[in-house]
Amino acid sequence: MKSIVCEGPGELRLRLGPVPTAAAGEVLLRVRRIGVCGTDMHIFRGTQPYLAYPRVMGHELSGEVVTAPAGSGLLPGDGVFVMPYLSCGDCVACRKGKTNCCTRIQVLGVHRDGGMAEYLAVPAAFVLKTEGISLDDAAMLEFLAIGMHAVRRGAVAAGQRVLVVGAGPIGVAVALFSALAGAEVTVLDARADRLGFCKDVLHVAHAVTAGEGDREQLAAITGGDFFDAVFDATGNIKAMERGLDFVAHGGTYVLVSIVPERLSFADPEFHKRETTLLGSRNATVDDFRAVLAAMKAGLVPTRAMNTHRATLDEFIDALPRWMDPASGVIKAIVEV
Questions:
Q1: How far apart are CA 250 and CA 248, in angstroms?
Q2: Of 301, 305, 244, which is closest to residue 275 (Cα–Cα)?
Q3: Is the pTM here over 0.90, yes or no?
Q4: Is residue 34 part of a domain?
Q5: Which percentage of the chain shows pLDDT scores above 90?
Q6: Is residue 224 one of the residues assigned to a domain?
């Protein structure tokens, strides 16, 4: 079978090898769609903190069952998506139901080889039926579930003011589900195309260009109070440190993105606002199910989100192009 291997930063190659053999309790999948996300771009750049090379990327996956173990509820030919966070089930986090931050977590495409390939064997517990949505939509469940999880972590409620900093795919997901929760959503980003997408497709209340004068604009929008919840989805250390300035007194700051550096901010500002600081990592099966329900209800504009696509053979040349801001990518999908 074909797979795409990232040998090191900036180095992708096509590898030919045998189709994997499913072990006991595993499903053998024919991969059909692979969503490309910021994690894959961090791997290509060499800035993903949890990864060792070489690595087959790809964790936003949908496909068809080839073989499945008895009792799994899956049959050959079933359309499925993959929950790529392989949790142990018995650590301190898993015992609390927080499988998304399992102490021994193995994320496909990060800690172990993922699905940028024609076939993949994965434990049956992490393979779920698409329930009638398309393979394209199923490949977008994962990044949307990350946004859903962050919104739930932030306890976003109707009537709140929410600021999303960074309007890439994860930021788009956070903005979407915050709005569906009834919040008034403002998006802050440096790119006009992404702000336009948030206004035209997501219908956010406000889209502000990051840069000179942005703080004054955000203050004006909120009457000087700033935001009940601020979500950082930039993956930029300076933006993450600055985001605290936009949190209202008594508000919540949720860090969805990740960087390899240490974060710092002024304790007097943090303390006087009695800020709630939260990390948001991955997603749970309940988040996936909530996104699936929203998709089936027609609440997620997946067709508009899928701005770019390529075949597996084209991916090596396509990825560097997609990483150029001029390409205007919201969500790219690889078709196998």
A1: 6
A2: 244
A3: yes
A4: yes
A5: 90
A6: yes
How far is residue 139's CA from residue 160's CA, in Å, rounded to a whole number?
A: 31
Would you state the structure tokens that stand for residue 48, as one six-digit string? Answer: 């993903």
Q: First-to-last CA distance in the chain? A: 11
Q: Are residues 55 and 125 in the same domain?
A: yes
Give which of 318, 194, 324 is closest to 332, Cα–Cα. 318
Give per-residue pLDDT as tens, 207-236: 999 999 999 999 999 999 999 999 999 989
Task: Kindly report the length of the chain.
Answer: 336
Residue 211, amino acid:
G
Tokens in use for 58?
A: 């790809």
Which 8-state DSSP code applies to residue 108? B
Could you tell me the two tokens for 30? 């024919």
Quickly tell me which residue has 């329900």 as its tokens. 293
Is the peptide bond between 54 and the residue preceding it cis, with omega within 30 degrees of 0?
yes
- DSSP state, residue 26: E
- Asked whether the beta carbons of 67 and 254 are under 8 A apart, the reply is no
CA 40 to chain centre: 11
- SS3 call for 269: helix
Same domain assignment for residues 126 and 154 = no
Task: Identify the H or E element spanning 307.
Answer: strand 306-311
Run of H or E including 177: helix 169-180
Q: Residue 80, Cα to own-chain centre: how many angstroms?
A: 18
pLDDT at 47 > cutoff 90? no
